[in-house]
Amino acid sequence: MPIKPKLRPFPSHFAWGFAAAAPQIEGAAYTDGKGPSVWDTFARIPGKVANGDTLDVACDHYHRYPEDLAMMAALGAKHYRLSIAWPRIFSRGHGEVNQKGIDFYNRLIDKALELGLTPWVTMYHWDTPQGIEDDFGGWRNRDTVKAFGVYADTIVKAFGDRVKHWITLNEIICFTRMSYGTGQRGPGLMLPEQVVNQTYHHAMMAHGEGVRAVRQHGGPGARVGLTDCSEAFIPLSETPADIEAARRVFVHENGRVLEPMYTGRYAPEFLASLGADAPHMEPGDLELISQATDFLGLNVYRGRFVRAGADGKPEILPFPPNYPAADAEWLTHTPQSIYWAPRMAAEIYGVESIAITENGAGYNDLPPVNGEVLDLHRRDYLRNYLRELQRAIDDGVPVDAYFLWSFMDNFEWADGYQRRFGVVYTNYETQERTPKASAKWYSQVMAANAIV
Q1: pLDDT digit string (tens) for 200-216?
Q2: Residue 85: its pLDDT value, please?
Q3: Superfamily for 15-236+290-305+324-448?
């Protein structure tokens, strides 16, 4: 007798979609009044980006968005997480509004809605206008927070009649510590620890300005949250001791973002650990940062294993040399990360609505053969992670949206165009798009609202 596997549907209200970001896909880096971002500048410094790749053309989404959105819709997506390029709205990040930038996003949003795609708009995805860096010192300066507030007001007023899902910032660590501390991201500076901590604080304030803008100008039904790349910590065994060890590490590693958002303070032990390097704060800062949000976005790619050590302290375990990983070597295949990161956010901080705003895998995919890209490794990665996400939902973790990163191959920051995260293959010479095996599989998942 044939066995009939049980189809386990996700909740009926679950939102499935694709994610992408303006600087990685749009190209048209200097078109129609757009000013340079710190990444346009950083990519031109020899040795900073693989193969000397730049953002100048990328996927040419600026001109090809109608076809891209149509392919997205044809694959069955109903939601699309995109970002707006700050230097396309304000060429220098402040001053005069660039109306041609407003016009572009009006066209893009209208086309998405026409095709049945609900836009989830990220206000900022790392592309600080170079003018903000030159004029104010970027995230080192409180003037950047003020400029971001004006920018947030401008885009919410312009698009809030049609956009009801807003994300203030994407992955704070990547444009603070990695941009001003380790030098791995644009603008590529290596500054003292106190300065790095100050950039974190200013970023948190900018998040607050984004929330304020949505509350003031978003109109009926507007929802707003932050996307964080909270580190996921997986208990080696799902026993009370290892789970508690993982929880303690989660708070220690992620508290500088989640703690002020959800409690209105930085933990005293955290500030004490910083000592003289603690950020300078002014009255009202924490009230701005801790305004109520409607959801938390989590970008989950990988996690680390934790156990309770013999001395009772948490022990983060190293990966052995042959542990499975993507071609992006930091991306270990740890499906349980997408179970534990949202669960801990919900349990520790009382988060009541969580969206997985990014999850995916970066490989150096080969070009299509006979019209196919058989990225079975990516399909396997996605399926295993979605199984764990389903388990989280079954256990009561309030996850109600999932966005696959990314819709198509694009500019992968310091890895340039060699590293491909898309489920649609991009031929950068011809700009032809080819859905990979993973895209066709994910299309079936969205259609069934279940893992197939």
Answers
A1: 999 999 999 999 999 99
A2: 98
A3: Glycosidases (3.20.20.80)
